[in-house]
Amino acid sequence: MSTSADEIKLWYQRHVNSGMFAALAFLGMDVAEVEAEGWMIRTADGREFIDCLGGFGVYNFGHRHPRIVAAVKAQLDRMAMSSRLALNPRLAELAHRLAAITPGELQYTFVCNSGTEAVEAALKLARLATGKPGIISARNAFHGKTLGSLSSTHREAFQKPFLPLMQHFGEVPFGDLAALEALIDDSTAAVLLEPVQGEGGIHVAPDGYLAGVRELTRDRGVLLILDEIQTGIGRTGANFACEHWDVAPDIMTLAKALGGGVMPIGATIGTAAVWEHFQEAPTVHSSTFGGNQLACSAALAALDVLVDEKIAGQAQTKGARMLAGLRALAAEYPEVIVDVRGIGLMLGLEMAAPDISQLFIANMIEQQVIVAYTLNFTGVVRLEPPLVMPESVIDEVLVRIRAALDGTRQVMEQFGLAPQN
Ligand code: PLP
Q1: How far apart are CA 121 and CA 385, in angstroms?
Q2: From the CA of 286, how far away is ligand 1's center (Å)?
Q3: pTM higher than 0.90, yes or no?
Q4: Do 66-308 and 323-384 share a fold?
Q5: Superfamily of domain 323-384
Q6: In angstroms, what is the span from residue 44 Cα to ligand 1's centroid?
Q7: What is the per-residue pLDDT across 29-59, written as a single tens digit (0 to 9) for each?
């Protein structure tokens, strides 16, 4: 017996979250998603949407990439999880591959199931390795919502209901090296940064910043953790965003696209020095499902596709095409779009006001293109399509964005919505 559309709506409101249901209904997305392929999502009412959100950075390889699906199916026929008491071959292969593909001296990997868990592991390993408590991250950063990573996610709306959070978490403006230098002291274990702030509103690290942070942290004996959960695996036009600036961290976190859009997985990769105390006490941090063979198989196939299909290169060329198209549209609709920015296919449209971004998103949904705002700054609409999306579809998206901008402008005129600065 299949569940009816009305039952799904009712059960969402009664048993999942009525507030979330209302938000989706406002956007016209109170409809069940039933199938996805490549860059297309089909809903139960027969509509097809172009996915330009990419699951917040999960679908770099598109939905159900055949090689990744085949790898997971093959693994499912052999062994799904792990006994936890024998050597897990897929985990060993994945750790080996990550050591080879990630920059610098990153060598050891802890595997978990999500981004926030990867950050939790990074924070704990930094404390374990240094014996110090202090973590400094950037204003507007987003590192996850469990209590440790939330302590480094500097957004009041997310933190306030859960105070007090963990101690010794400092905040500096993103891009301000002098402020960071001033805040580092003898209690600082690590500096935690995203190379491109995603949920903060798509802010690319200013040139020289990450190299400066690397030099500063090395000089002061502080670890550098780069959170590549959203920027990694090709999204910005390099396999890892830090490679744009030739900077290698002591610890890197990955998740989202690492599972190839097929399995959830997170990873924390560190140098031998970071791992030293963890090797002596390997059970101080663990996860029952972390490193399960299905998720590791998906990640291994994803890393193959990353290299074989030159996914980062695709993000670079298609990103340049989309950015140029968006800049042209911004020039035509200056009362709606006040800035266009980003790198690779991690792009943001800053709207004249947060309300206008909501309006624009609803218009995009009408055009059957899925987009969303960035979590910490709702005035920015992010575009993070699958990196395998053909250029012809990117051009089609630009046509639909123009239609959505027309719709947005009409409503703005109708209601006298003046742009706010
Ligand atoms: N770190 C970054 C940079 C992210 O963008 C996110 C999620 O958006 C996270 C951490 C948290 O990942 P998850 O939602 O899988 O816990």
Answers
A1: 29
A2: 19
A3: yes
A4: no
A5: Aspartate Aminotransferase, domain 1 (3.90.1150.10)
A6: 28
A7: 999 999 999 999 999 999 999 999 999 999 9
Tokens of 125: 């390993």
Mutate to test the pocket of ligand 1, among 137, 230, 235 (most ligand atoms within 8 A of CB): 230
- What does the pLDDT look like over 216-259, one tens digit per residue? 999 999 999 999 999 999 999 999 999 999 999 999 999 999 99
Number of helical (H) and strand (E) elements in the chain, helices listed first? 15, 17
Give the architecture-level CATH label for domain 66-308. 3-Layer(aba) Sandwich (3.40)
Domain segments of the chain: what residues?
66-308, 323-384
Which of 120, 328, 315 has its CA nearest to residue 231?
Answer: 315
pLDDT at 418: 60
Amino acid at 134: G
Regarding the beta carbon of 254 and ligand 1, being less than 6 Å apart is answered no
Listed as ranges, residues in the chain with pLDDT below 50 are 420-421
- State the Cα torsion 31-27-42-58 to the nearest 10°: -120
CB 115, CB 255: distance < 8 Å: yes
Q: Whose CA is nearest to atom 5 of ligand 1?
A: 230
* Cβ–Cβ under 8 Å, residues 205 and 214: no
Q: Is 184 in the pocket of ligand 1 (CB under 6 A)?
A: no
- Select from 278, 283, 261, 269 the least CA-distant residue to 51: 261
Cβ pair 228, 242 in contact under 8 A: yes
| Dihedral sign computed on CA atoms, order 390, 392, 393, 395 | positive
